[in-house]
Amino acid sequence: MHAPLYGVLLQIAYLGTHFRGWASQKEGRTVHSEIAGAIRAVDARAGAPRGASRTDAGVHAEGQIATFDATLDIPPRGWVLALNEHLPDDVCVRRAWRVPLGLSPRTIVTGKRYVYRVLLDRVRDPLWKDRAWRVGWPVDLEKLAREGTQLVGTHDFGAFRSSHDARIETVRTITRVSVAHGKEGGPGGRIVAILVEGNAFLYNMVRISVGTLMDVARGKLEEGTVTRALGSRDRKTLGTTAPAHGLTLERIEFHLPEEASAPWPP
């Protein structure tokens, strides 16, 4: 029986379209199960991966992180190349570090950055069907940006979560909400990118926030809806939950332990 020698930290990207989310489930394909299978294929005695963020079905990631404990002496470069040999095309290990044994990624996370993409188009576009929420109605981008600023700060976001989230502590800090338009999507700037950064998020918090901002931007809800919901903590005062496929976990900010190796690729 080989005892674990050290921990490995992975940075992972995936297209969430054909996944039931990150976390393992009894039925359905998950990112966790794909990563776990690849690890076992390389190191049969390695521990199971421990993720930092439980993305929903259909949500994408560019910078998810996870750790596991290894029993084979393989450098970070070897882990990246070997694991990717055993992973399908819609998930990839982008970077690896050697870290202390037993490290939980949740203990080193300092913040997360999400980006939600909206396609402004009356006609569907197959190139964006899995990566952006297509809307065919007029959107007031200035109103969208103004309403978004109300999310910034430390607030009780009890209204901004799914009924499946039973956590008692609902205070979170949002450090940035910004709206970019015209940088993606070709002529006319059809893509609106809504970036949300914070220290932590509740279940469906970003999608509920974006859906509400879009409802304000289209005139379905009044400006000030976000502020009123922060005070009332009532989900019914907010707007729709934006579809999962427009959301990407763009980056997880974290502090590496002093014992961590240099990453590969650098």
Which key phrases capture this entry?
alpha+beta; Alpha-Beta Plaits; 2 domains; 5 helices; 10 strands
In short:
The chain is of the alpha+beta class. It has helices at residues 31-42, 76-85, 141-149, 205-217, 225-232, and strands at 6-14, 50-51, 60-70, 91-99, 109-120, 133-135, 153-156, 171-181, 191-198, 247-254.
Describe this structure in words.
The chain has 266 residues and is α+β, with helices and mostly antiparallel strands. The chain has two domains: 6-107, Alpha-Beta Plaits; 110-249, Pseudouridine synthase I, catalytic domain, C-terminal subdomain (Alpha-Beta Plaits, 2-Layer Sandwich). It is built from five helices and ten strands. The chain has helices at 31-42, 76-85, 141-149, 205-217, 225-232, and strands at 6-14, 50-51, 60-70, 91-99, 109-120, 133-135, 153-156, 171-181, 191-198, 247-254. Strands 1, 2, 3, 4, 5, 6, 7, 8, 9 and 10 form a ten-stranded mixed beta sheet that branches. A hairpin with an 8-residue loop joins strand 2 (50-51) and strand 3 (60-70). The longest helix is centred in the last third of the chain and has 13 residues, at 205-217. 39% of the residues are buried. The model has no long low-confidence stretch (mean pLDDT 95).
